[in-house]
Every structure is written in C-alpha cells, then in structure tokens.
Amino acid sequence: MSKTKDEPAGSMLPLPLQFLAAWLAVWLGRVLQQEVDYLMAENRVLRERLGSKKLRLTVAERRRLAVLGAQMGRKALTKVATIARPETILRWYRELVAKKYDGSKHRGPGRPRKRGEIADLVVKMARENEGWGYTRIKGALQNLGYKVGGGTIQRILRENGIDPAPLRGMSWGTFIKAHLGAIAGMDFFTVEVVTLLGLVRYHVLFVLDIKSRTVEIAGIGRDPCGRWMEQMARNLVDAVDGFLAGKRYLLMDRDPLYTGPFRRIVEGSGVKIVRLPARSPNLNAFAERFVLSIKSECLERMVPLGEKHLRQAILEYMAHYHGERNHQGLGNALINGAGNDSVGAGPVVRRDRIGGLLHFYHRRTASSARAE
Prior knowledge:
By secondary structure, the chain is of the alpha/beta class. Among the domains are: 50-102 and 110-172, no CATH class; 180-280, Ribonuclease H-like superfamily/Ribonuclease H (Nucleotidyltransferase, domain 5, 2-Layer Sandwich); 340-371, no CATH class. It contains 14 helices and 7 strands. It has a 5-stranded mixed beta sheet with strand order 3-2-1-4-5, with helices on both faces. Strands 6-7 form a two-stranded antiparallel sheet.
C-alpha cells in the first residue's frame, strides 16, 4: 500500500497540558464507567422494590430521558433503561421532536413571537459551549438584543434535558476536534480465511489518522504474538516513513495483544498511548467505522481463499478507500482528492476492483486512456 505524507501535527494546547488532558480523559472514563455500573445496579434494586406499581413521570422528566435516550440509541438503552422500555423512551423523543415543529397552537396574525427563537438560541448556545452557565448565556443573549432572566434560561435548559454547566463538561467529541492532526486511532479486526487446514482466523492491525481519515494496514497475521507486535510498533514509529511520525496521541482499547513492550516502543517515540475504558467503542468511533466499512463493502461479500487472496483483497480495498471512495466526514470528498481534475471532460467510465465488488466512476482523459 502506498504511503502518504504525514501532515504536520497541530494542537491548541501546550504539550504538558496535552498529556494531562489525555490522562484525565482516561481516568474520567474509568470513573464514569464505574458510576454507570453502580447506577444500573441501584436502578434495578429500586425497580424491584417498586414492584408492580406504575411510576408516573412528569413532562420535564420524560423530556430529559427522551433527549438522553435518543443520543444513546436503542442498543445502548436496552442495557441501561429500567424505568421504561427503550421503545417507549424513543417514542417520547419522537413526540418531543414532533411537538417542537408543531406550530399550530402558536399561529396567528402578524409576525411570530420571539419566545421560540430565544429558546432555540439558549439550547444552541448551551450545546455548543459546554462551560457556559446561565449567566454567560444571559450575557450572550443580551449582546443579541434579548433580555432574558437566569430563571427562564434554567427552565428552558431543564425542559430540553440539558444539565447545568458544571455537570456537562467537555465532551469527548470536542476533545477530539481540538486535537485533530495529533491523534490517531488503532484497532484490530479479524477475518476467517479458508485454507487447506480449514477455517483460519487472521488478525488485521490498522492505524487511522482521525483528521485525514487515512488508514495504514500495519500488519496481517495468524498469531500476533509479542515479537510480531513489537515489530509492528517499530514500523509505525520509524522516523522516516512511520505512520505515527508527528502524532501525539494513539487511541487503543485494552486488548491484551497490545503488550507492554509494544506500548513502551510507541511511547518511547514520543506518542502518548490513551487506553480507552472497557466497553466504550464510541470513544474510538472512527476506527470502528472503518472496520464496518471494509467488512460490509468487501470482506463480508467474498470468501478469502488463503492468506495471499486476503492480502490482495485488502490491498485493493485500501486503494479504493483512499482514492475512489467518498467520505462524509470529509465533506463527501475523496481522501487523496484525485479524480476531481477530470470533471466535465471525456466520457464517464467505470473502474472495477475485486471482481466487480467495488466500483468507481470517473471521466476518461487522454492520460487515463493511454494508461489503460
């Protein structure tokens, strides 16, 4: 697979503060997971004590649960929801959304009232600025010509299921965006390969640059032992063409395949390893999304016949991923930007990969015709 030139690492914080922020993120993730486990157990105890009695929630309580439940999704709700079923919580959210856009009760002659506009601004400011409290939002509204009391702002946030500023804190997504260019994600995925000995499981190790979405297949092996992992680490931190050159953080889960010597080699090059809490795939969502893409678009639609066939299929998919696949996170553009120069010139042709599993449409140019 072709190498791509690393972009210069950028960060909005000094290096010591970056390390402190990463350590705090890991520590807070562990503490929050423990709190979630405790609260789930406590909720079950309280639910059992309540018995068959029906718990009646206020409108504000339903709104709060609906907003938080919609962010988690049905699968996560199934594990934690105890007061109501996941379907009920998601139905509350749909009703909340429908009510938000139902203006039949407020229609009348003349221009619409400012109340809805102010409420939307309060919610927008609170969600986009985790550290803003009631007074800070009140001042920002005053700059726009709206005089709103702190109690009104508190009520609007409560009705929309938004916690006060001290309880919101910086989200993981905000932390990632603040350090784009300096963070990479790492993960494994496995593939069952048909061999003369039957089905053999292969492990594929990859690293992803979160800013550019560029992916490097670090290695493919049957038994990724300690020495194999150490060699992968040396390749990734190579000063000349290592994929992690210029990076500051590397996100990874707590898989035992990431051995102590492997982590020491990576951190010895100046890359801080951030080990994510258990059962938290969303914290490494970009790597998880790549696994979903390569499996659903390629590996699950074919039968790998031996290691050579598997390597060839992954090599072809990576060429498609970087040069022929549009990415929503990049404004629906290609990673390497190739192909845009020929827009509007020549007939449209299709390029196939892996026997027609992958397609790319482009315009034929004189240079591409000669290459074909």
